[in-house]
Amino acid sequence: MCPNRPEGAETDPSPVVRAREKALALALRQAVAGVGGRGAFVHRWDPGTRRLDLVASEGVAAEAARRWGVLREEQDVPPSCALRRGVLVRTAGDRLATGAAGTVAVPLVGAGGPIGALTVLLSGTDGPDDVELSFLHAVAAWTAQHLERTGGSPPQGQSVTEHERTARAAELTSALAEAVTVQDVVRAVAEHVLAPFGAEGLIVSVFENGRFTRVGEVGYPVEYLKRFDGPLKAGLPVTDVLRSRSPVFLESPAQIYQRYPAITDRILMGTSPKMAWAFLPLVASGRVVGVSILSYSRPHSFSEADRTLLTTFSALVGQALERARLYDLEHARAQELQSALLPRTLPRPPAAVAAARYLPAGRGEQVGGDWFDVIPLSGDRVALVVGDVMGHGIAEAATMGRLRTAVRTLADLDMTPDELLGHLNDLVSDLGEDFYATCLYAVYDPVGRTCCYSLAGHPPPVFVHPDGTVHSPVLSPDPPLGAATPPFAVHELPLPDGSLVVLCTDGLIESGAQDAEQGLTRLLRVLSKAAVGPARFTGSDEEADVRGLEELCETVVSELLPDREHTTDDAALLIAHTRAMPADDVASFGLPDDPRAAGQARELARDQLSRWGLDELTTTTELLVSELVGNAIRYAKGPMRLRLLRSRSLTCEVYDGSLSTPRIRHATYTDEGGRGLQLVAALSRRWGARYLSDAKCIWTEQDIPDGLGNRLAAAAEVPVS
Questions:
Q1: What is the pTM of this model?
Q2: Within a 10 A sphere around the Cβ of 516, how many other Cβ atoms?
Q3: How are the residues of the chain apportioned to helix, strand and coil, as percentages rounded to the nearest 5?
Q4: Beta carbons within 8 Å of 200's beta carbon, 6+ residues apart
């Protein structure tokens, strides 16, 4: 068998067949040598069967050639892709077991359209450069001429090209109707216009602010196109198209030089990979929004049918492009708004480090109202929040920002979870009947080692204990915010030191393929496998803990949303590793309900700070404790209690049995009192009050100087992915 003739090819030794075999063998050898390949194929397209039949090969074993013998037009292999798209296709890897490091396929285009494909198997991973690709295009053009002259074109009398174009017109209309983004429009044009018209290059540009901006291209080296970036100039085809709103067809370089003399100085046409062009105006709403350029690797004549059909196509593309640009603009603004409203970093309070993920929907509006937050509270407590505004779009993203701001403001007032959701429910109700949101607000107390939370229409939290036990409390959530009637239920449970708290929105666990309960079961299963035992999160190395949480977030997202591009809802995930406060860092003392309590409190504070090695803070702390206890004796009622917490800062807490609210007074020169809280505010980094069921706590925080403060470090932050 002839080495260049595949098994099953013609054996007729006619002069025509011999001439074709000789020409194809020469073309294959030139293609292999030109790009440093290890083998090559030529396939001829049969429009009747819509197959690519192998007609010649070079440097490929017979067994490997048989696997490439017959390819379907729709098959996902380089020759078929090159035929469909009408452009060079380059892939890495060995798609059909030939031992190649990669593949380059070039469409073979005849006078009536595509007639086959030339494919080169690459021996290295670097791939051909621009010069080698230009040579390969030239070899492909020469191969197409010989293949067409010797039996590669459709038989005369058959309107295969016209039928193909009619079918592609319907396909283009359908694809443009489904196109959402500008890139969708460019892909639709590349797939449904290039091949029917035998074109090999495409540039789609939009006109705005006095200049053209490329939004997509096919079949051009990027470095070549960069030469033409810049403001709009006179004497160019695109300028003519913009002014006249009519297409311009240029069938050769000589024609473009003749009609546009300025282009000789403007463009180095000698290096252009194209030899003929169709400049098509993209018109929408009565104005030119851009220009689409089809180009050919050799001179090309445009028939009247070609010109009419391309002009019709350009009108369809213009409308689709304008619609897609509006979508992209709105989507970009919504993403910017949402990105600005979500936390860029997560704080690292002493009681918990956390990692989070926000994943926009892969389809549809893509911008929703999911959010998450980590909020440090007084007494080293930490609030963990996730929420979801129902709906998608800019309005929902803006509402999410308002709710997140409200949560942080209410949390700063040290409200309980149920009270906070009650105020948030009022806010959502005031937005209108069409606004609803779900929310889960949890507070972890490192001293009591408890987690207290309330939820409004939201998936329940998941807890992972240090021994690997994973569970999610079974409970009936209150209705969503905007539809609920307070009070909200409060749930509290003990949480061992080193536990994980996992919060998510319904987009992570609920989809068209599974309900929320099934998704929650999958989440529990993934967590039980990925976060087993205390070894992964020891708490001794904060950076290692953060890396472990980031890895766990990625594992959960990959398992629950493996096909992110096709999701229809956004999702948020927050995982926190809790750390209890050591008993040695907590000191609590009961105080009598009489004036002697202030002196006892000063003495207790002085002794405790001495044991902790914080003598530098003694004077200030005695003043703070004395003022807080004095206020409680004067304005409140017993029983009273003093609690000191040593962490990254020193916290002094005074508890009493009154629910009255302390406030700073502006005392005059003649007033004997009213300056106590002013002194407290001046001496402490921050201070405040929080309320219990039957008492209140007035607290202050002071910075710990030098030694211990450097060892514990200031609160760092975790970047959010």
A1: 0.64
A2: 14
A3: 40, 25, 35
A4: 86, 87, 88, 107, 109, 137, 194, 219, 274, 295, 296, 297
